[in-house]
Recover the amino acids of this structure.
């Protein structure tokens, strides 16, 4: 066994069991969510007669809602120093929203289900990430977030595989697949409730709620990370457009979930190694590499005329996710005071939430008015802008290693 492999093995063994449990919770919830989301755009367009533009706005609004809610849940989490309770509430709301999808008869019903699900995600996101940062050893912060991202993403490709199998068995019955997706969501809530113990708070409980002066406690480095993350979000519009791109190239409804499988396999395989690298190398270099991969992915997806090229672009999209998502979480965690970590995640996601709505709206508008290729070309332009912003940061302390 090589020295590098031995180091990675030791790092995995050193990661606390609670981090693994949180990762499995994320895996189960993503199995549930992606079983639905890999089919939802097709269900909306083909069964409910919804336009692609409306799909884009709905997905953008849903993700924006999740990110905006995170700032409030983060502040509450820091106020009471109760991470796990809020995480359980958020996961529970998402779990109980799942039956609304198979019961949906109109766009309004889908909107209710989707927004409820995303509010649950918003409630749990910042407290869960802060809980992880409280549990993880400081020298394994990147590896811990990378591991959770890998497990989360494993669920994100198991879900679409499950959707493909169930769509085949049920002869294309969307609603039967949606019903089956409720089971892993409930298991996720039970595992978090009984399988994760929250550490004792390191700061006094019931601190004053977020004040303007608290924002001044965040470092210059943190605000640069927030700015870069916001521009990055403009480039990374909803993954629903990957599903719709597959349909535009002639893939069948039964086979289309394999697009999300392919993306998430690459994502899952790359997220943990990228997290390990985040503990050892320049964050600027790693994040810049992820942005370059996204630009290439957008070019490939814009030019795709067949399934082989489509899947190449989808794989590159998954690689850029693996290189950047756990890294951004580790950067936020490492740049914020421990007593304001959940708030830091909340503010970061608030900015991302404000960016994701216009991103998906613009993507849907370009798709409807010009065509699919224009959507991905625009994404590549925003990714290039994020890369230029990153390169403009002259102060190495902003993107330095270690955290």
């Amino acid at each position: 066994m090589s020295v590098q492999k031995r180091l990675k093995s030791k790092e995995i063994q050193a990661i606390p069991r609670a981090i693994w449990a949180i990762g499995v919770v994320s895996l189960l919830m993503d199995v549930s969510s992606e079983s639905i989301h890999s089919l939802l755009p097709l269900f909306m367009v083909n069964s409910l007669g919804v336009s692609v533009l409306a799909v884009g706005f709905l997905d953008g609004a849903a993700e924006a809602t999740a990110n905006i809610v995170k700032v409030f849940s983060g502040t509450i989490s820091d106020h009471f120093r109760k991470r796990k309770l809020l995480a359980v509430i958020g996961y529970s709301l998402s779990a109980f929203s799942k039956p609304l999808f198979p019961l949906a008869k109109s766009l309004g019903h889908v909107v209710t289900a989707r927004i409820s699900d995303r509010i649950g995600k918003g409630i749990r996101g910042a407290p869960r990430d802060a809980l992880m940062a409280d549990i993880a050893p400081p020298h394994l912060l990147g590896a811990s977030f990378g591991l959770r991202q890998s497990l989360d993403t494993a669920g994100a490709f198991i879900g679409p595989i499950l959707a493909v199998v169930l769509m085949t068995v049920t002869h294309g019955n969307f609603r039967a697949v949606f019903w089956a997706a409720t089971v892993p969501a409930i298991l996720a809530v039970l595992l978090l409730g009984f399988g994760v113990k929250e550490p004792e708070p390191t700061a006094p409980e019931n601190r004053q709620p977020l004040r303007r002066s608290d924002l001044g406690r965040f470092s210059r480095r943190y605000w640069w990370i927030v700015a870069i993350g916001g521009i990055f979000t403009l480039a990374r519009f909803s993954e629903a457009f990957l599903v719709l791109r597959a349909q535009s190239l002639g893939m069948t409804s039964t086979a289309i979930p394999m697009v999300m499988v392919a993306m998430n396999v690459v994502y899952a395989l790359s997220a943990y190694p990228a997290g390990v690298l985040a503990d050892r190398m320049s964050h600027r270099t790693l994040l810049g590499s992820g942005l370059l991969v996204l630009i290439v992915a957008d070019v490939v997806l814009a030019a795709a005329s067949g399934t082989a090229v489509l899947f190449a672009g989808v794989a590159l999209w998954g690689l850029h996710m693996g290189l950047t998502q756990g890294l951004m979480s580790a950067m936020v965690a490492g740049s914020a005071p421990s007593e304001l970590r959940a708030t830091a995640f909340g503010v970061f996601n608030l900015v991302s939430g404000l960016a994701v709505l216009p991103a998906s709206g613009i993507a849907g508008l370009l798709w409807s008015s010009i065509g699919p290729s224009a959507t991905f070309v625009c994404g590549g332009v925003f990714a290039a802008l994020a890369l230029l912003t990153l390169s403009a940061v002259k102060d190495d302390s902003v993107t330095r290693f270690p955290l």
Remarks:
- The chain has a mean pLDDT of 83.
- DSSP finds 18 helices and no strands in the chain.
- The first helix runs from residue 3 to 14.
- The two ends are 29 Å apart (CA to CA).
